[in-house]
Amino acid sequence: MDDPSTSYTKIRVTRSITIPDPIKISRYRRLPELGPRVLFFSGGTALNSVSRVLKNYTHNSIHLVTPFDSGGSSAKLRKAFNMPSIGDLRSRLMALADESVTGHPEIYKLFTYRFPTDLKRAELLKQLEMMIQGRHPMIDSVSNPMRRIIRNLLGCFYDAMPVDFNLNGASIGNLILTGGYLNNHEHLDPVIFLFEKLVGVQGTVRAIVNADYHLAAELADGQRVIGQHLLTGKEVAPLASNVTDLFLSKSLDDYQPVRVKLRKKNQRLIEQAELICYPPGSFYSSLIANLLPQGVGASITANDCPKVFVPNQGDDPEQIDMSLNQSLQQLMRYLQAGTSQTAEPERLLNFVLLDSRHGTVSADQKHELWKAWGIQLIDVPLITPESAPNYDANLLVSALLSLA
């Protein structure tokens, strides 16, 4: 006979809430270590300001980050070591790091330090060698055993570094992560976990996949582009034609389609979240890219928590003249593609959060798309004169936590 004390009944409760909810926000502020598990599918730096505010209210946020960046300093590391991109992971880890007196400011300073761009290679090599030997001022201020661990990881990078590797402008945090990746059988999770402990990360950061893959996009004009850096409009001219399809490729040089499954660790993180957010940022290379692994949509469907989309304000080079409804259609398309069978839209998305009075995005609540999918528009103040055209991080965090 079943023990009554171990039997459970699962029900879904609906209730009215206030946004922002001052009582709930105050409670989270007092006890952030007990704050809600808010999960973000993101990449890039767009969510870093939100993350810095968020850690004041919850130390349990979850950030699934894309490792497909093919530009900037990450591109040099990827080319040298055939590895996933780690720049956006480091950036998010730093945004969530403990910056209080109980944290490790000397390690935070080291991990955010970049080598000068105007020094000769010999001088940069000398600085790196001094760090490995423990004689560099930035290393000298770090106490053991953390100092020994950092020196060891930098040594792993140094030993594997190609003779022609360009250290100008290199992020020390990226070099440490790379050394840890190489020292842990080319796996990201162990060194990310170590990084979290070294700087007291107040949340969980994971790469959506541990794979050396690249983004490939089909455009409306028939072109195909390979590489995240060709989509964002930051390093090359912005796209002149809309993205129609997004894929993963094994190679940056030629299109080699590949499918990858969501890891069980990340599956559990999604299924245990108390709120799932599709946040602002580069629409395809940050948000949609996170939904490409097989199993993401199914894991979202399995979780009965609220799901909210926060559309971009201002100009996103990846969304050429896309309306909110078109963005929703694309988002839903990729979410449903990740399920074994087409899931009901309400299992994948419940709310759209925006500020139509002060922002650039507006929506008609009576549109048939909204009716058919049962999406509720939450139109509240999220933008201030100081933050415009972007969201104010404090207002956005307050609104999201009120939904959790």
UniProtKB/TrEMBL annotation:
Domain of life: Bacteria
Alphabetical list of InterPro entries matching this protein: CofD, CofD-like_dom_sf, CofD-rel_GAK
CDD domains membership: YvcK_like
Pfam families: CofD
Any one Gene Ontology molecular-function term assigned to this protein's record: LPPG:FO 2-phospho-L-lactate transferase activity
PANTHER family: MATERNAL EFFECT EMBRYO ARREST 18 (PTHR31240:SF0)
Full protein name: GAK system CofD-like protein
Organism: Candidatus Thiodiazotropha endoloripes
